[in-house]
Amino acid sequence: MAEPVIKNQVKTTESTPQEADYVVEVKDLYLNFYTQVGVVRALNGVSFSIPRGKVLGIVGESGCGKSQTGLSILQLVPPPGRIEKGQILFKRNPDDEPIDILKLGRNSDEMRNIRGDDISMIFQEPMTSLNPVYTIGDQIMEAILLHQTPDKKEARRRAVDILRRVGMPNPERIADSYPHELSGGMRQRAMIALALSCTPVLLIADEPTTALDVTTEAVILDLMRELQAEIGTSIMFVTHNMGVVAQMCDEVAVMYLGRVVERAPVDDIFYNPKHPYTIALLRSIPRIGQKKRKRLEVIKGSVPDPYSTVTGCPFHPRCPNFMPGLCDKVLPAETPVNGDTKHTVRCHLYPGSVEVPSQASTHGGAAVAS
Ligand SMILES: Nc1ncnc2c1ncn2[C@@H]1O[C@H](COP(=O)(O)OP(=O)(O)OP(=O)(O)O)[C@@H](O)[C@H]1O
Protein backbone atom coordinates (compact mmCIF):
# COMPACT_ATOMS: atom_id res chain seq x y z
CA MET A 1 0.00 0.00 0.00
CA ALA A 2 1.42 3.34 -1.00
CA GLU A 3 2.08 5.72 1.88
CA PRO A 4 1.38 9.42 1.39
CA VAL A 5 4.37 11.19 -0.11
CA ILE A 6 6.52 12.82 2.54
CA LYS A 7 7.35 16.22 1.13
CA ASN A 8 9.71 17.38 3.77
CA GLN A 9 12.81 15.65 4.95
CA VAL A 10 14.26 16.35 8.38
CA LYS A 11 17.63 17.92 7.96
CA THR A 12 19.57 18.20 11.18
CA THR A 13 22.21 20.85 11.17
CA GLU A 14 24.40 22.57 13.73
CA SER A 15 24.55 25.80 11.76
CA THR A 16 23.41 29.22 12.96
CA PRO A 17 19.79 30.30 12.43
CA GLN A 18 20.83 32.39 9.43
CA GLU A 19 22.41 29.37 7.76
CA ALA A 20 19.98 26.75 9.08
CA ASP A 21 17.23 25.46 6.86
CA TYR A 22 13.80 26.82 7.68
CA VAL A 23 10.29 26.21 6.39
CA VAL A 24 8.99 29.65 7.25
CA GLU A 25 10.86 32.80 8.08
CA VAL A 26 8.82 35.72 9.41
CA LYS A 27 10.60 39.03 8.93
CA ASP A 28 9.65 42.31 10.58
CA LEU A 29 5.90 41.67 10.50
CA TYR A 30 3.50 44.46 11.43
CA LEU A 31 -0.25 43.89 11.80
CA ASN A 32 -2.89 46.42 12.86
CA PHE A 33 -6.59 46.09 13.65
CA TYR A 34 -8.55 49.17 12.63
CA THR A 35 -11.48 49.11 15.04
CA GLN A 36 -14.17 51.73 15.58
CA VAL A 37 -12.53 52.81 18.82
CA GLY A 38 -8.96 52.99 17.55
CA VAL A 39 -6.04 51.06 16.14
CA VAL A 40 -4.77 47.91 17.85
CA ARG A 41 -1.15 47.37 16.90
CA ALA A 42 -1.17 43.60 17.28
CA LEU A 43 2.22 42.77 15.74
CA ASN A 44 5.08 45.23 15.89
CA GLY A 45 8.00 43.84 13.95
CA VAL A 46 7.82 40.10 14.64
CA SER A 47 10.81 38.14 13.34
CA PHE A 48 11.66 34.44 13.76
CA SER A 49 12.16 31.34 11.69
CA ILE A 50 10.69 27.85 12.00
CA PRO A 51 13.44 25.26 11.53
CA ARG A 52 12.71 22.40 9.16
CA GLY A 53 11.58 19.22 10.90
CA LYS A 54 11.62 20.83 14.36
CA VAL A 55 9.07 22.16 16.84
CA LEU A 56 9.16 25.87 17.56
CA GLY A 57 7.19 26.99 20.61
CA ILE A 58 5.63 30.44 20.59
CA VAL A 59 4.90 31.50 24.17
CA GLY A 60 3.62 34.56 25.96
CA GLU A 61 0.64 35.87 27.88
CA SER A 62 -2.77 36.39 26.36
CA GLY A 63 -2.91 39.14 23.76
CA CYS A 64 0.80 39.17 22.87
CA GLY A 65 0.10 38.19 19.26
CA LYS A 66 0.72 34.44 19.14
CA SER A 67 -2.47 33.52 17.29
CA GLN A 68 -2.35 36.45 14.89
CA THR A 69 1.20 35.45 13.92
CA GLY A 70 -0.06 31.96 13.05
CA LEU A 71 -3.03 33.32 11.12
CA SER A 72 -0.76 35.75 9.24
CA ILE A 73 1.32 32.84 7.94
CA LEU A 74 -1.82 31.45 6.31
CA GLN A 75 -3.14 34.87 5.27
CA LEU A 76 -6.17 34.25 7.47
CA VAL A 77 -6.10 37.39 9.61
CA PRO A 78 -9.75 38.40 10.07
CA PRO A 79 -11.02 41.90 9.27
CA PRO A 80 -10.52 44.62 10.46
CA GLY A 81 -6.93 43.32 10.66
CA ARG A 82 -4.41 44.39 8.05
CA ILE A 83 -0.80 43.36 7.59
CA GLU A 84 1.10 46.61 7.18
CA LYS A 85 4.62 45.47 6.53
CA GLY A 86 6.96 42.51 6.56
CA GLN A 87 7.74 39.27 4.76
CA ILE A 88 6.72 35.67 5.37
CA LEU A 89 9.11 33.49 3.41
CA PHE A 90 8.06 29.90 2.80
CA LYS A 91 10.35 27.14 1.48
CA ARG A 92 8.58 23.89 0.63
CA ASN A 93 11.89 22.08 0.12
CA PRO A 94 15.35 22.95 1.41
CA ASP A 95 16.67 23.95 -2.02
CA ASP A 96 13.62 25.92 -3.17
CA GLU A 97 13.66 29.64 -3.70
CA PRO A 98 11.59 31.14 -0.89
CA ILE A 99 8.05 32.29 -1.71
CA ASP A 100 6.90 35.47 0.01
CA ILE A 101 3.43 34.45 1.18
CA LEU A 102 2.39 38.07 1.62
CA LYS A 103 2.92 38.69 -2.09
CA LEU A 104 0.36 36.01 -2.99
CA GLY A 105 -3.29 36.96 -3.36
CA ARG A 106 -5.22 35.93 -0.25
CA ASN A 107 -7.60 33.85 -2.38
CA SER A 108 -5.17 32.92 -5.15
CA ASP A 109 -4.80 29.27 -6.24
CA GLU A 110 -1.22 29.25 -4.95
CA MET A 111 -2.32 30.46 -1.51
CA ARG A 112 -5.12 27.87 -1.42
CA ASN A 113 -2.64 25.15 -2.34
CA ILE A 114 -0.30 26.24 0.43
CA ARG A 115 -3.21 26.17 2.91
CA GLY A 116 -4.54 22.81 1.80
CA ASP A 117 -1.33 21.04 1.01
CA ASP A 118 1.71 22.53 2.72
CA ILE A 119 0.66 24.31 5.89
CA SER A 120 -2.14 23.08 8.17
CA MET A 121 -3.49 24.70 11.29
CA ILE A 122 -5.18 23.17 14.31
CA PHE A 123 -6.98 25.05 17.04
CA GLN A 124 -7.97 24.68 20.68
CA GLU A 125 -11.55 23.95 19.67
CA PRO A 126 -11.73 21.04 17.18
CA MET A 127 -15.16 22.12 15.94
CA THR A 128 -13.41 25.15 14.40
CA SER A 129 -11.86 22.73 11.91
CA LEU A 130 -14.38 19.89 11.80
CA ASN A 131 -17.62 20.29 9.93
CA PRO A 132 -20.53 18.95 12.04
CA VAL A 133 -22.59 17.78 9.05
CA TYR A 134 -19.99 15.47 7.46
CA THR A 135 -18.50 12.28 8.85
CA ILE A 136 -14.89 12.34 10.00
CA GLY A 137 -13.93 10.00 7.15
CA ASP A 138 -15.60 12.17 4.50
CA GLN A 139 -13.77 15.25 5.75
CA ILE A 140 -10.37 13.58 5.69
CA MET A 141 -11.16 12.00 2.31
CA GLU A 142 -12.12 15.37 0.86
CA ALA A 143 -8.65 16.74 1.62
CA ILE A 144 -6.98 13.63 0.20
CA LEU A 145 -9.14 13.64 -2.96
CA LEU A 146 -8.36 17.30 -3.53
CA HIS A 147 -4.62 17.11 -3.04
CA GLN A 148 -3.39 13.52 -3.32
CA THR A 149 -5.40 11.07 -5.37
CA PRO A 150 -8.66 11.10 -7.37
CA ASP A 151 -9.31 7.44 -6.45
CA LYS A 152 -12.11 7.29 -3.85
CA LYS A 153 -11.25 3.80 -2.57
CA GLU A 154 -7.64 4.76 -2.10
CA ALA A 155 -8.66 8.01 -0.38
CA ARG A 156 -10.86 6.05 2.04
CA ARG A 157 -8.02 3.64 2.75
CA ARG A 158 -5.67 6.52 3.48
CA ALA A 159 -8.26 8.25 5.68
CA VAL A 160 -8.72 5.09 7.78
CA ASP A 161 -4.98 4.63 7.92
CA ILE A 162 -4.36 8.11 9.26
CA LEU A 163 -7.12 7.63 11.86
CA ARG A 164 -5.32 4.49 12.96
CA ARG A 165 -2.04 6.39 13.15
CA VAL A 166 -3.50 9.00 15.50
CA GLY A 167 -4.46 6.18 17.82
CA MET A 168 -8.20 5.90 17.11
CA PRO A 169 -9.64 2.58 18.27
CA ASN A 170 -11.71 1.05 15.49
CA PRO A 171 -10.79 3.60 12.82
CA GLU A 172 -13.30 2.17 10.30
CA ARG A 173 -16.15 3.01 12.66
CA ILE A 174 -14.71 6.42 13.57
CA ALA A 175 -14.45 7.25 9.86
CA ASP A 176 -18.23 6.81 9.63
CA SER A 177 -18.95 8.87 12.77
CA TYR A 178 -19.97 12.51 12.96
CA PRO A 179 -17.91 14.89 15.14
CA HIS A 180 -20.63 15.18 17.80
CA GLU A 181 -20.49 11.41 18.34
CA LEU A 182 -16.90 11.63 19.60
CA SER A 183 -15.46 12.69 22.98
CA GLY A 184 -13.30 15.85 23.25
CA GLY A 185 -10.02 13.90 23.12
CA MET A 186 -11.23 11.85 20.13
CA ARG A 187 -12.29 14.99 18.28
CA GLN A 188 -8.86 16.45 18.91
CA ARG A 189 -7.30 13.32 17.42
CA ALA A 190 -9.65 13.57 14.44
CA MET A 191 -8.60 17.19 13.93
CA ILE A 192 -4.94 16.21 14.06
CA ALA A 193 -5.65 13.41 11.57
CA LEU A 194 -7.36 15.91 9.26
CA ALA A 195 -4.46 18.36 9.59
CA LEU A 196 -1.86 15.67 8.92
CA SER A 197 -3.78 13.92 6.14
CA CYS A 198 -1.79 15.80 3.51
CA THR A 199 1.55 15.40 5.36
CA PRO A 200 2.03 19.16 5.61
CA VAL A 201 5.47 20.71 5.63
CA LEU A 202 4.32 22.87 8.55
CA LEU A 203 1.63 22.38 11.18
CA ILE A 204 0.56 25.46 13.11
CA ALA A 205 -0.91 24.21 16.39
CA ASP A 206 -2.67 26.97 18.31
CA GLU A 207 -3.19 25.82 21.91
CA PRO A 208 -4.40 22.42 20.62
CA THR A 209 -4.63 20.80 24.05
CA THR A 210 -5.62 23.67 26.35
CA ALA A 211 -9.25 22.57 26.59
CA LEU A 212 -8.41 18.94 27.44
CA ASP A 213 -7.94 17.27 30.81
CA VAL A 214 -4.29 16.65 31.72
CA THR A 215 -4.32 12.92 30.97
CA THR A 216 -5.80 13.39 27.50
CA GLU A 217 -3.47 16.36 26.95
CA ALA A 218 -0.43 14.19 27.71
CA VAL A 219 -1.63 11.50 25.27
CA ILE A 220 -2.28 14.03 22.49
CA LEU A 221 1.09 15.74 23.02
CA ASP A 222 2.92 12.40 22.87
CA LEU A 223 1.02 11.56 19.72
CA MET A 224 1.90 14.86 18.06
CA ARG A 225 5.56 14.42 18.92
CA GLU A 226 5.53 10.86 17.53
CA LEU A 227 3.82 11.88 14.30
CA GLN A 228 6.13 14.86 13.97
CA ALA A 229 9.17 12.61 14.21
CA GLU A 230 7.62 10.06 11.83
CA ILE A 231 6.43 12.46 9.14
CA GLY A 232 9.12 15.12 9.62
CA THR A 233 6.58 17.93 9.76
CA SER A 234 7.75 21.18 11.34
CA ILE A 235 5.44 22.46 14.05
CA MET A 236 4.80 25.98 15.24
CA PHE A 237 3.34 25.27 18.66
CA VAL A 238 1.44 28.20 20.17
CA THR A 239 0.94 27.92 23.91
CA HIS A 240 1.00 29.86 27.16
CA ASN A 241 1.98 26.72 29.06
CA MET A 242 5.71 26.43 29.78
CA GLY A 243 5.27 22.79 30.84
CA VAL A 244 3.98 21.97 27.38
CA VAL A 245 6.93 23.87 25.89
CA ALA A 246 9.38 21.71 27.83
CA GLN A 247 7.67 18.55 26.60
CA MET A 248 7.18 19.51 22.96
CA CYS A 249 9.61 22.09 21.65
CA ASP A 250 13.11 22.18 20.24
CA GLU A 251 13.28 25.96 20.10
CA VAL A 252 11.24 28.72 21.68
CA ALA A 253 10.27 32.28 20.77
CA VAL A 254 8.94 34.31 23.69
CA MET A 255 6.52 37.05 22.60
CA TYR A 256 5.50 40.12 24.49
CA LEU A 257 3.00 42.58 23.03
CA GLY A 258 3.49 41.88 19.40
CA ARG A 259 7.21 41.29 19.38
CA VAL A 260 9.65 38.41 19.97
CA VAL A 261 11.67 39.40 23.06
CA GLU A 262 13.81 36.27 23.38
CA ARG A 263 14.41 33.18 21.26
CA ALA A 264 16.62 30.22 21.96
CA PRO A 265 16.90 26.44 21.98
CA VAL A 266 14.51 25.06 24.61
CA ASP A 267 17.23 24.20 27.15
CA ASP A 268 18.56 27.76 27.11
CA ILE A 269 15.08 29.13 27.73
CA PHE A 270 14.72 26.96 30.85
CA TYR A 271 18.30 26.95 32.18
CA ASN A 272 19.71 30.24 30.93
CA PRO A 273 16.80 32.65 30.36
CA LYS A 274 17.87 36.24 29.78
CA HIS A 275 14.86 38.47 29.30
CA PRO A 276 13.17 39.55 32.57
CA TYR A 277 9.84 38.61 30.97
CA THR A 278 11.02 35.05 30.21
CA ILE A 279 12.35 34.78 33.77
CA ALA A 280 9.01 35.99 35.14
CA LEU A 281 7.09 33.51 32.98
CA LEU A 282 9.24 30.67 34.32
CA ARG A 283 8.77 31.78 37.94
CA SER A 284 5.05 31.60 37.50
CA ILE A 285 5.05 27.82 36.90
CA PRO A 286 5.44 25.09 39.55
CA ARG A 287 8.70 23.13 39.54
CA ILE A 288 9.58 19.66 40.77
CA GLY A 289 11.53 19.96 44.03
CA GLN A 290 10.04 23.36 44.81
CA LYS A 291 9.06 23.71 48.50
CA LYS A 292 5.39 22.92 48.89
CA ARG A 293 4.57 26.14 50.71
CA LYS A 294 6.44 28.40 48.28
CA ARG A 295 3.98 30.60 46.46
CA LEU A 296 4.20 30.85 42.69
CA GLU A 297 5.18 34.33 41.60
CA VAL A 298 2.72 36.35 39.62
CA ILE A 299 4.07 38.62 36.91
CA LYS A 300 3.76 42.17 38.25
CA GLY A 301 1.16 44.39 36.60
CA SER A 302 -0.84 43.40 33.57
CA VAL A 303 -0.56 43.54 29.83
CA PRO A 304 -1.26 47.15 28.75
CA ASP A 305 -4.56 48.03 27.16
CA PRO A 306 -4.35 47.19 23.43
CA TYR A 307 -4.97 50.80 22.43
CA SER A 308 -2.41 52.33 24.82
CA THR A 309 1.01 53.70 23.99
CA VAL A 310 4.26 52.45 25.52
CA THR A 311 7.56 54.15 24.77
CA GLY A 312 10.88 52.29 24.77
CA CYS A 313 10.88 48.65 25.85
CA PRO A 314 7.27 47.41 25.94
CA PHE A 315 7.95 45.41 29.13
CA HIS A 316 9.42 48.33 31.11
CA PRO A 317 6.26 49.17 33.13
CA ARG A 318 6.37 45.65 34.63
CA CYS A 319 10.09 45.01 34.64
CA PRO A 320 11.96 44.43 37.93
CA ASN A 321 15.17 45.61 36.23
CA PHE A 322 13.68 48.84 34.85
CA MET A 323 16.34 51.50 34.18
CA PRO A 324 14.71 54.94 33.99
CA GLY A 325 15.87 57.11 31.13
CA LEU A 326 16.82 54.08 29.03
CA CYS A 327 14.14 51.40 29.17
CA ASP A 328 11.31 53.94 28.94
CA LYS A 329 12.98 55.82 26.10
CA VAL A 330 14.78 53.40 23.79
CA LEU A 331 13.41 50.31 22.09
CA PRO A 332 16.00 47.53 22.63
CA ALA A 333 17.43 45.93 19.50
CA GLU A 334 17.62 42.15 19.12
CA THR A 335 21.11 41.01 20.11
CA PRO A 336 22.84 37.63 20.34
CA VAL A 337 23.58 36.41 23.88
CA ASN A 338 27.36 36.15 24.32
CA GLY A 339 27.75 36.14 20.55
CA ASP A 340 25.48 33.08 20.16
CA THR A 341 23.13 33.80 17.29
CA LYS A 342 20.91 30.87 18.29
CA HIS A 343 20.04 32.71 21.50
CA THR A 344 18.89 36.30 21.06
CA VAL A 345 17.28 38.82 23.39
CA ARG A 346 15.77 42.32 23.22
CA CYS A 347 16.70 43.91 26.53
CA HIS A 348 18.88 46.77 27.76
CA LEU A 349 20.54 44.57 30.37
CA TYR A 350 22.65 43.14 27.55
CA PRO A 351 25.28 44.76 25.33
CA GLY A 352 24.28 45.88 21.86
CA SER A 353 20.68 46.72 22.74
CA VAL A 354 20.98 50.44 22.05
CA GLU A 355 20.98 50.43 18.32
CA VAL A 356 17.66 52.00 17.51
CA PRO A 357 17.09 55.70 18.29
CA SER A 358 14.38 56.68 20.78
CA GLN A 359 11.02 55.46 19.57
CA ALA A 360 7.49 55.52 20.81
CA SER A 361 5.54 52.28 20.84
CA THR A 362 1.90 51.52 20.76
CA HIS A 363 0.55 48.41 22.44
CA GLY A 364 3.72 46.59 23.15
CA GLY A 365 6.20 48.61 21.32
CA ALA A 366 5.01 49.31 17.84
CA ALA A 367 8.15 50.66 16.36
CA VAL A 368 7.53 54.21 15.46
CA ALA A 369 5.36 56.85 17.07
CA SER A 370 2.57 57.94 14.83
N1 LIG B 1 -10.70 41.01 15.60
C1 LIG B 1 -9.90 41.77 16.35
N2 LIG B 1 -10.14 43.08 16.52
C2 LIG B 1 -9.33 43.86 17.27
N3 LIG B 1 -8.23 43.42 17.88
C3 LIG B 1 -7.94 42.13 17.76
C4 LIG B 1 -8.74 41.23 16.99
N4 LIG B 1 -8.17 39.99 17.05
C5 LIG B 1 -7.07 40.11 17.82
N5 LIG B 1 -6.91 41.38 18.25
C6 LIG B 1 -5.86 41.92 19.10
O1 LIG B 1 -4.60 41.49 18.60
C7 LIG B 1 -3.71 41.28 19.68
C8 LIG B 1 -3.06 39.93 19.51
O2 LIG B 1 -4.07 38.93 19.66
P1 LIG B 1 -3.76 37.36 19.61
O3 LIG B 1 -5.06 36.65 19.58
O4 LIG B 1 -2.79 37.08 18.54
O5 LIG B 1 -3.07 37.12 21.03
P2 LIG B 1 -2.64 35.73 21.68
O6 LIG B 1 -1.26 35.92 22.18
O7 LIG B 1 -2.86 34.61 20.74
O8 LIG B 1 -3.65 35.63 22.91
P3 LIG B 1 -4.45 34.34 23.47
O9 LIG B 1 -3.42 33.48 24.15
O10 LIG B 1 -5.44 34.94 24.41
O11 LIG B 1 -5.09 33.68 22.28
C9 LIG B 1 -4.51 41.43 20.97
O12 LIG B 1 -4.30 42.70 21.52
C10 LIG B 1 -5.93 41.30 20.49
O13 LIG B 1 -6.80 42.08 21.31
From TrEMBL:
Subcellular location: Cell membrane
GO biological process: peptide transport
Residue intervals of the ABC transporter domain: 24-282
Lineage: Bacteria, Bacillati, Chloroflexota, Chloroflexia, Candidatus Thermobaculales
Gene Ontology MF annotations: ATP binding; ATP hydrolysis activity
Pfam families cross-referenced by the UniProt entry: ABC_tran, oligo_HPY
Keyword Translocase: yes
Protein name according to UniProt: Oligopeptide/dipeptide ABC transporter, ATPase subunit
Gene Ontology, cellular component aspect: plasma membrane
Family: Belongs to the ABC transporter superfamily.
SMART domains according to UniProt: AAA
Keyword tags: ATP-binding, Cell inner membrane, Cell membrane, Membrane, Nucleotide-binding, Translocase, Transport
Membrane topology term: Peripheral membrane protein
Matches recorded under PANTHER family: ATPASE AAA-TYPE CORE DOMAIN-CONTAINING PROTEIN (PTHR43297:SF14), OLIGOPEPTIDE TRANSPORT ATP-BINDING PROTEIN APPD (PTHR43297)
